[in-house]
Structures are given as structure tokens and as C-alpha cells.
Specification:
Four copies of one chain form a homotetramer. Chain A has helices spanning 21-36, 49-59, 96-103, 114-125, 139-143, 162-172; strands at residues 7-12, 39-43, 68-72, 86-89, 107-109, 130-133, 157-159. Chain A is α/β, with parallel strands linked by helices.
Chain lengths: 173, 173, 173, 173
């Protein structure tokens, strides 16, 4: 067992109802690559992109115990997707979105509607490094490369591909 | 005293550090007009636009006890702006943004940075009617007239003037 | 209209399912007396003792707009008892218990089960002055006069009657 | 790596300022035994009993990655004790107490003041199985064997020794 602390990355994106096939597939690949680089994932624990990234993580050859954390809006752990190693059922409703972005060292956004938008906005408020995928439709594409306000310099990193996102992570850590 | 229930409107916008003069002045007028129409205000209880709208409400000839509610991020009631009749010190940090938009029957956004953006995104998730002022700079202008995602039809109402916003409220209630 | 700020007192006790008649009646009287002394009430906005204290407040000759605040666990304002002037639907579940005790200048406990127990424990952690009624059954009686831990001196005030509780408030403010 | 889901137990007790030596030592042993039985731990991530139980877990021969989860009141992961594998910095203040007890399948209380009391009360509200150590001073001893209210049958299990607590867990799972 590694005694070194794992680094966790928050991954945000659409739930099952609005998750397109390209977003789901990108999520699978992203989860796999993150695990193989030794990163854990924090997400909202639901379906859609959240399920994809957890499934990807658990299918990686380099996966590890505790590689997937799901922070749920509801009260019951069984509502998590089956690929979450660790489940935090908050009972806080959408207020849990804040916990998702606060718990990672950086945030990667993949597609997404207004829920993802709120998570990107919170991540910016918290000063988290943010990477937004622009090769899928949704708020990640809309906000890629933008500065949300002037409370800090810089802007949301635009990743045009999975490789871009992974390079960005490599530079951060 | 009226025994009829008051209607409260959530008003969101920038804190003191980033509140421009036009946003502050629009807030004053908005607060005044809302009180004169019998509406109460729910806001984040801080400075900037939040202070302006509370000050406007308390300066109206039609103001009433309890017309201004401030839901604070911090633990201490004395951190509220002095125009809040009612102070809810949540100790929840920015998670209080959700309570601000949930507590009003409708949401009016005036300017704003990433905090306001998170509030607009939450209001959309909650299905609240949203009015965004487009006559001041900030996220309210950016999102005025837009549909944030397809979880429900319609879009954020664009108010090009205070009159537009008040007409929109009249049509709602 | 008084421009002076109102003082709000948190009142905690059982919901409808477990509220006995003596507790409900004490709540009615307590609400009435608090309003006549100019105090507002913050409570959990539900039935049982919460309803009683709100109803008492609104029935007082000295009642005022905004005299009753209900901070709800659920997402919908219509779940509040009908005597709440101001409703904060948190969507936070029982985490809202903390907001109830944080929002008052002091806490009065009337009867109660494990929910009330959690509120008394939180009030103690927050250093709020606490008055516990010992003339009704429940956790208020169990903890009246006790020191919950040594983080601060003193103990929970034991009120053997409504008069005791009101005298305690008079001494505080 | 085991693909089977780990079971997590919430462990609650005093922070560093009020943690006695017997409580700390019991925490160390408890953490060690839980890990050796394959259980993970959820705690508040701080010092005192929280640190002890995490340290015990990580020192066990049967420890595993992700065996210790710390759910912090503050905003910063570095505030966790160094034995937390997984850190959830909530920024919710003491409202995080609810998340601690909600995230475990059962709750074990060891000593404790008003914070621990609030956690026991919440665990009861949530219907979690609760075990309270009566061989150390604090609220766990006070409430061992008691029924907090009548919302459900049964009572808090009294563990007079670590062996009692472990047998109780064995019977539960």
C-alpha cells in the first residue's frame, strides 16, 4: 500500500437525464486516465457523467481502493452509482455541489447544464484551478478560456482534448 | 398591520468589493420600488448590491417591518448590513447562496460576478422565475434572455430597465 | 413602525407527532408573551410546539409583522405552519436545526425528543444563553440546570414556569 | 485489491482540547481493531479522539487505502489530522457533524462533550445503530443504554469495553 496521500480531482458534469453519449464516453476515458496517473475522483455520485468517470476509474489497471468518492444530494448511500468506493450521503440537496468542488485539488468540467454551471461558479469563488472541456457541448464549452470575474487573475483552462486536460494536470502537480 | 402574507423576492448581485456605482444605484431604486409594491427582499445580507437593495427598501414610504432579510455566510449577525431587519447567520459559507434563492418567490439579478452566477444557476435548477438586469455590467447582463439548460422551458427574463423588472413582477403575481 | 431592531429568540421543541397537550399549551402562552414583550421568534417552522409558539405570537395584541420566522428542513415554503410570517425553506434536512439556534439571541427549549436534544447541544456549542422548561416532559426537563461540557462556565437555566423564562429573558436584555 | 465495498463506521468523540488520555487510548485501539476487521472510519477529521481513531486505523496490519475519512468543519484540507486518507473540507462549520453520522452504517461514541452529544442526537434521528462506550467519561457514558425518544424502539447500546463494541458490530453485519 502506498502511504503517500492521494490527490483527488473534482469532476463535474451532467446527470443521466441530460448526459449525451460523447460526454459519457469522455467521462469513461477521463476516469481511466486519472486512475492510471494515481489521481482519485470526487464527484456528485450520481448517474451520467458522474457514473462514467467513476466506472472509468474502477476499470483502470492502476485503480486503487477509495479512488472514487461520491458526495450525494440525498440521504441514502444506495442512491450512489455502483462505482463509488466511498459515499457521503449529505442530505443537503444541491448544496452538496459546493462540497464536490471544495474536496478536490482542481476541478475538471465536462459538458453540463445549470448544475455544472453552479459548480464551475463555486470553484471559481473558491479559487480552485478549473479545466473545462470544449470538445463536448454544455457549460464547460461555454466557459472554457473565460475569466468569470476579477477576484483573481487567469481564466478557466480550455481543454480541447483529453490530452490537453491531462497535460494541464501534470503541470499543476 | 396586514395579516396577509408578504411576498419575498430574492435579489442577488455583487458584494461591496466589486459593486459599481450604477449597480448600487439600481439596487437602491429596486429596493425602494419593491417595498412600495409591498414586496419583501431576501438577500445575502452583505454590502454592495445587497446593502443597496436593503437600504432602498427601508427608505421607502411603503416599507414595513421585516421587509429585508439577510442570509449571511458567516456565524455572526452583526456582520449584516445595517438595513437588514431580519438576519439569518448561517455559518454555512457560500452554501448560503442556495438559501437566498430558495427563500424568494422569484429572483432578480443585478450585475454580479461568480457568486451571482452561482445564484442564477441555482435559481434555474430550482425552477424559480428569474429576471436579469441587462442595463448594468455583470453576469445578469450576460445571461439575460438565455435558457441555461433544457430542464425546463422558457428563459431568464431580460429587464432592460427597472420598469421592465417591475412589470415582470406584476405579471407573475 | 419601530425602526429599532427586533430581538429574536429561538424556540425549540417537539414536532406534531410527539407534542403533548401541555407542551402545546405552554408554547401558545410563550409565543404570546414573547410578542407582547416585543420579541420575535425563530423556530423550525413545523407543527407541534413550533406551530404553538407561532400561533401564540400572532394572536398577541402586541404582535408585529415578521414576528415569526420558520426555518424549514424541506424545500417548499408551503410546508411551514400557517403562523409563520417569514419562511426560509432550506432544503438542508435536519441540518437546519443549527440555523434555528444560531439565528436567535437566546434559546428556549420546551419539552422535546432527539431533535430538540440536538438543538440544545448546538446552542451550547455556539455559546447561546439557553433556558430549558422543566415543567413539561422531554429533553428540556432532563437538561435543565445542567452544564453540558466545560467549554464555557455556567449551565442551562432551569425555568420551572413561564414566568421564570420571561424573567430570565428580562435579565438577559 | 478487494472489489467488495468497504463498510464505514462513524466514530464520534472529543476534539483535542477536551480529549482525556483514556479516551485517546481507547480511540487508538478502536481504530486498530476496526481496520483489522476491514471497517473504514468516518470522523470529523480533527484532533483528540478523531486523530486517535484515524492513527489506530492506519497503524493496523490490516489497514487499507481510504480507511480513514475526515469530514471537516473548515474550508481547508490541511486542517485534517495527518492520519486521514480522505478529507472532505465542508466549510459548513458544525453542520458537518450531521454528515459524519450520516456517512457511516453505524455510530460509535467515545466520551465527548456537547459536540458529541449533537452527533448522538442526530444519529438517533437518522435511525442509525449507536454504540456508546461507558468505560470513559463523557456523553457516551451518560447516554449508554438509553432511549432518546420514542421515534423508534430500542436504545443506544452500552459497550463497557472495546470487546463489547466489536461484538456489537459483529452482530450488526
Amino acid at each position: 500500500l502506498s502511504l503517500e496521500k492521494r490527490k483527488y480531482i473534482s469532476v463535474v458534469g451532467p446527470a443521466a437525464a441530460t448526459c449525451t453519449k460523447p460526454v459519457y464516453e469522455l467521462g469513461l476515458e477521463l476516469g481511466l486516465c486519472l486512475a492510471n496517473k494515481g489521481f482519485g475522483i470526487v464527484c456528485g455520485g450520481g448517474g451520467g457523467l458522474m457514473e462514467a468517470v467513476c466506472k472509468g476509474s474502477k476499470s483502470a489497471s492502476g485503480t486503487f481502493e477509495g479512488s472514487t468518492i461520491g458526495i450525494l444530494p440525498g440521504e441514502h448511500a444506495h442512491e450512489a452509482n455502483p462505482y463509488c468506493d466511498i459515499v457521503i450521503p449529505t442530505g443537503l440537496g444541491i448544496a452538496r455541489n459546493i462540497l464536490v468542488v471544495r474536496s478536490g485539488l482542481a476541478v475538471i468540467a465536462v459538458g453540463g447544464g445549470s448544475g455544472t454551471l453552479s459548480e464551475i461558479a463555486f470553484a471559481w469563488q473558491l479559487g480552485k484551478p478549473i479545466c473545462a472541456m470544449s470538445n463536448v457541448e454544455g457549460w464547460s464549452k461555454e466557459l472554457a478560456g473565460k475569466q468569470l470575474d476579477q477576484r483573481h487573475e487567469g481564466s478557466i483552462f480550455e481543454a480541447k482534448s483529453l490530452e490537453d486536460a491531462l497535460s494541464w494536470l501534470d503541470q499543476l502537480f
